[in-house]
């Protein structure tokens, strides 16, 4: 049921790969709630995914952009402002990739060239997007920028590898840039620490299925789905959260504050 929370608002959504993506779900909900959007992803990801199908569903234009390229981001924002007829209101940063994870290279044996690519793609890209948007004065006052994170930024999950370091930097960038953007333009910047979610990227993490089940048993409300996260993103894009900024918001069914659960104890006793 639509409440038109984003009526009249416009925004860019990064990272929609396929129908399992949180960015994909968020695009659909944002449009249903009245927003006009531009979709973007790296050219290589666009070849792998189905973003053009999503564009048809959302009546949106697709602008390819490599988030590690300042020139690409400038071109993306410039073209988006042309499409929107001026400034826009929100950005979703749903970008993350680790060559070390893809190549099954252990954290303690990391390839540093790969590590730097992980940081550039998964964390510094947020700074690049924010810096470019601020320089081009692209966002309206009280705009909202969100980036998707994970609790491995604060706690150790061995299979998450160097993505944990990238998420820690991502969250720090959101706090630091949120300060500057808030004073300059009243733009708010937050991260969402989502439950383990069966996206294409998430499922590639070593031991994902086992951990997904563990998190579901530990969390009082169970794991938050991609659809749940999309709804949360839209709320944070809306005017109902105008005073929320520089936060890492846990959207995980209570996982982050639960030490142990009866379901976990029962499962261990049964072993």
Please tell me about this protein's structure.
This protein is of the alpha/beta class. It has one domain (10-270): 3-Layer(aba) Sandwich (Rossmann fold), CATH 3.40.50.720. The protein is 45% helix and 15% strand. It is built from ten helices and seven strands. It has helices at residues 22-32, 43-48, 51-58, 70-84, 99-102, 112-135, 163-185, 208-218, 226-237, 262-270, and strands at 10-14, 36-40, 61-62, 88-93, 139-149, 188-194, 248-251. A seven-stranded parallel sheet has the order 3-2-1-4-5-6-7, with helices on both faces. α7 (163-185) links the parallel β5 (139-149) and β6. α6 packs parallel to α7 (163-185). The chain starts with 9 loop residues before the first strand and ends with a helix.
- Envelope shape: globular
Residue share in helix: 40-55%
Nearest-angstrom radius of gyration?
A: 18 Å
The number of domains: 1
Q: How much beta, percentage-wise?
A: 5-15%
From the 3D structure, determine the CATH topology.
Rossmann fold
Q: From the helix content, strand content and strand pairing, which structural class follows?
A: alpha/beta
CATH-assigned homologous superfamily: NAD(P)-binding Rossmann-like Domain
Rounded to the nearest angstrom, the distance between the terminal CA atoms is: 44 Å
If you average the pLDDT, what whole number results? 95
User: Which runs of at least 5 residues are low in confidence (pLDDT < 50)?
Assistant: none
